[in-house]
Design a protein that fits this description.
alpha+beta; globular; 12 helices; Glycoside_hydrolase_63; ten-stranded antiparallel sheet; glycoprotein; four-stranded antiparallel sheet; EC 3.2.1.106; endoplasmic reticulum; single chain; 6hp_glycosidase-like_sf; 501 residues
């Protein structure tokens, strides 16, 4: 599977669209792995286009769209359009999935509260969750394509979102239907892999466009479905398409006014896709130190040494939020200074979300009691460049310039917390008190031969010019914030004297 940049996304997620370019040949995993293993560091990387997987344009352009209804933001509409870009007809399978994240196996929940999905009509499945209530996922027949004159109806597949212990660990499965069931059913033709009772915690609707020769060149297959709280009898395709087109128009208008200056269509499209990438990079992130260190009640306990390795000083951490990740595709992990940089462009389209991110990173369940900001998930105690004051003031000014609002409460709240972080830097990273700072890992562009976040093997400290420069920048940013606050609240004149010394 080969993904292109996300195409568009409205800031409130009322309309989102992205594109897969999917080869019609078998994906060349082994070829990519083996050839890159053979090459040396002096050779160019062997990439997917080098494999021939996309030769003669034998691939699918698959556009996936989602939209919200006017009167209920939890009514979600989906449309998948797959174009055959190749020179010949080709078969295609589109298999939308619905599943519940498996938290019931951890041992924290009563098994009687386990969520469920079951078939309730030929093209409808109903889900139930103790917090979310009931939802219905309803599918529409796909219009005929090519020589096939009949609509394509999906086959409803059900299983449990449980690990296949027998395959992975050579141990007995708790029950017969496991999470790899759909692959085994469709690809391996294992007819007993899915639950014949049409229920489970994982569900798929299998659209098979393989009658005759498949989808002709230049033509497309279309799949429509919706996730709803309403138990409707069918999907109104015309209404669904009209709603999506309305959301597209709203998104077009919004992004046009974000950049009203004369710009070429290409530049507007580049900017819009960049914003879309920021919106698609949001991700739910859950990290609780106590659970990470001690394991889950129903699972194999982690090794005792886990409590005494990295992150042992961050026992207060409780992360349970939607965060802007470095990249939800390649780098889906927590990294605070990446998030701070993200907030600058995010402030142009969604200043409330940008402010919430910066505020969150300084809250007491994130920030260490000594004032240090968490760095990244593999070692929260590492040191990164102090960019949060800069990001906070930039977000404040962007909102004021573009939306005519100045959120002084936000600026003051984060400023107060950053005073703690500034003090941490002064107390912890300037051991001799001469305003020459040590720091640690301060950016990918200056990685050294040894880990600067660890004590030096020769003893002593490593004074860094870039660390000292970052602290000078930090001080100037805090000074600017204090100047702004002092215009409205005279108490911050004291901060000006402190930062100017």
């Amino acid at each position: 599977m080969y993904i292109l940049p996300f195409l568009t996304a409205s800031f409130q997620h009322s309309y989102m669209k992205y594109l897969y370019k999917y080869p019609q040949k078998k994906f060349p995993y082994e070829d990519l792995r083996d050839e890159n293993a053979r090459r040396s560091r002096l050779d160019r990387e062997y990439q997917i286009l080098d494999t021939g997987a996309f030769d003669d344009n034998r691939y699918w352009d698959i556009f996936i769209e989602t939209a919200k209804e006017d009167d209920d933001e939890e009514e979600l509409l989906f449309r998948v359009i797959a174009y055959n870009r190749g020179p010949e007809p080709a078969p295609l399978h589109i298999i939308p999935h619905v599943w519940f994240r498996n938290t019931w196996s951890w041992g924290y929940e009563d098994q009687s509260h386990k969520p469920s999905i079951e078939k309730v009509a030929p093209l409808t499945a109903k889900s139930y969750h103790k917090k979310l209530g009931e939802r219905y996922v309803r599918f529409s027949p796909s219009p005929a394509a090519g020589s096939n004159q009949e609509d394509v109806l999906p086959k409803m597949l059900f299983t449990e979102n449980e690990t296949n212990n027998e395959l992975l660990w050579k141990s007995e499965n708790d029950q017969p239907y496991v999470k790899d069931a759909f692959h085994r059913y469709i690809v391996n033709n294992e007819r007993d892999a899915i639950n014949p009772e049409n229920k489970g915690t994982k569900f798929a609707a299998w659209y098979a466009f393989n009658e005759g020769e498949g989808i002709p060149p230049g033509e497309c297959a279309v799949v429509r479905f919706r996730l709803s709280r309403k138990n409707q009898t069918f999907v109104d395709e015309e209404e669904l398409d009209d709603t999506i087109e309305q959301r597209i128009g709203e998104a077009d208008d919004f992004y046009y006014h974000i950049s009203p200056l004369p710009m070429s269509d290409d530049l507007r499209n580049i900017q819009r896709q960049a914003f879309a990438g920021m919106m698609w990079t949001k991700q739910y992130y859950h990290f609780v130190w106590d659970q990470w260190a001690n394991g889950d009640p129903a699972m194999i306990p982690p090794p005792p040494g886990r409590k005494h390795v990295r992150n042992q000083q961050w026992k207060h951490l409780y992360m349970d939020d939607i965060l802007s990740m470095p990249d939800s595709w390649e780098y889906p992990f927590f990294a605070a200074w990446d998030t701070a940089f993200h907030c600058i462009p995010l402030a142009m389209i969604d200043p409330e979300f940008a402010k919430k991110q910066l505020d969150l990173l300084t809250r007491e369940w994130y920030m260490h009691p000594n004032g240090q900001l968490a760095a990244y998930e593999w070692n929260f105690g590492d040191v990164n460049p102090p960019v949060h004051a800069w990001a906070t003031f930039r977000v404040f000014k962007i909102e004021r310039k573009m939306y005519g609002r100045q959120d002084l409460d936000f600026l003051e709240r984060v400023f107060q917390k950053l005073l703690l972080n500034f003090t941490w830097w002064v107390n912890r990273k300037d051991s001799e008190g001469k305003n020459v700072f040590e720091g640690g890992f301060l950016g990918l562009d200056n990685i050294g031969l040894f880990n600067r976040s660890e004590p030096l093997p020769t003893g002593g400290v490593l004074e860094q010019a870039d660390s000292t420069g970052w602290m000078a920048f930090y001080c100037l940013c805090m000074l600017n914030m204090a100047l702004e606050l002092a215009k409205h609240r005279r108490i911050y004149e004291d901060s000006l004297l402190h930062l100017d010394m």
